[in-house]
Write a structure and sequence with these properties.
It comes from Paracoccus aminophilus JCM 7686. This is Purine nucleoside phosphorylase. Homotrimer. Helix content is about 30%, strand content about 25%. By secondary structure, it is α/β, with parallel strands linked by helices. It has a single domain, classed as Nucleoside phosphorylase domain (Rossmann fold). A 5-stranded mixed barrel has the order 5-8-7-6-9. The longest helix has 25 residues.
């Protein structure tokens, strides 16, 4: 039995065998959303191979239960490439999610904006991404399944459903391209200018590896960024992780409303 199958059985023994309809990965400062789920919270420390609490603002627990009548699996935190130099750091958790029978994945993150119309507190639905970090979570995968097509990596049906939920709530949810930098240092003003020339609308240090892994595992995926700052050189604000955590709640409340409406309305 594979490690992911063993962990899936362990989780099912504690949270029940019903497959979660959706998986949800929470970004910096967004961990409180897991507390809204009626179910069982399992610390990552009790799931061998799951990431540790390497970044403040993340809650290292897997919560499985019900939110707005839907069975969900919520990852209160993620592992980042910059913590270990491993782009595949979230592979095992996502393999476990697939082993639980989940088919759809929603990702959230905190990001820096490259657009004046996306100020701190705004939300952005990812339409596509640029892997500027220059690595890939499937490096070393021996099977030919590693050649994953990425044309519709950000699932059109999920994006349409999230857009409809936001529209019903009259919450702006523009689409944009997310550019993945490795971190942990923030981008330079020159890197921000380069990202803008390449067509990026926001920058961040996560999400892209999970999107690639999701497609590899056959999961439909979509992602939303909470804008916490403007990119370096685009404003006079001081950029720091503390600033990111402080600003994340501005968009998190709107994001929670959208996610609840999305779950309530359902999606094909």
């Amino acid at each position: 039995m594979s490690k992911s199958a063993e962990l899936a059985r362990l989780i099912q023994s504690r949270a029940g065998a019903e497959p979660p309809k959706f998986g949800l990965v929470l970004g910096s400062g967004l961990g409180h959303l897991a507390a809204q789920v009626e179910g069982v919270a399992i610390p990552y420390s009790e799931l061998p191979g799951f990431p540790h609490a390497g970044v403040s603002g993340h809650v290292p627990e897997l919560t499985i239960g019900t939110l707005e009548g839907r069975r969900v699996a919520v990852f209160g935190g993620r592992a980042h490439y910059y913590e270990s130099g491993r782009a595949d750091a979230m592979r095992l958790p996502l393999e476990v999610l697939a082993a639980l029978g989940t088919e759809q994945l929603l990702l959230t993150n905190a990001a820096g904006s490259l657009r004046a119309d996306l100020p701190p507190g705004a939300l952005m639905l990812l339409s596509d991404h640029i892997a500027f970090a220059g690595t890939n979570p499937l490096i070393g995968e021996p099977s030919e399944a590693r050649f994953v097509p990425m044309t519709a990596a950000h699932d059109p049906a999920l994006r349409a459903a999230l857009t409809a939920a936001a529209r019903a709530l009259e919450i702006p949810l523009p689409e944009g391209v997310y550019c993945w930098f490795s971190g942990p240092s923030f981008e330079t003003p020159a890197e921000i200018r380069a990202a803008r020339i390449l067509g990026a609308d926001a920058v961040g240090m996560s999400t892209v590896p999970e999107i690639i892994l999701a497609r590899f595992l056959g999961l439909r995926a979509a992602a939303i960024s909470v804008i916490t700052n403007m990119g370096a050189g685009l404003s006079d604000e001081s950029i720091s992780h503390e600033h990111t955590k402080a600003m994340a709640p501005l968009g998190a409340a709107k994001l929670e409303r959208i996610l609840r409406r999305f779950l309530k309305d359902g999606v094909a």
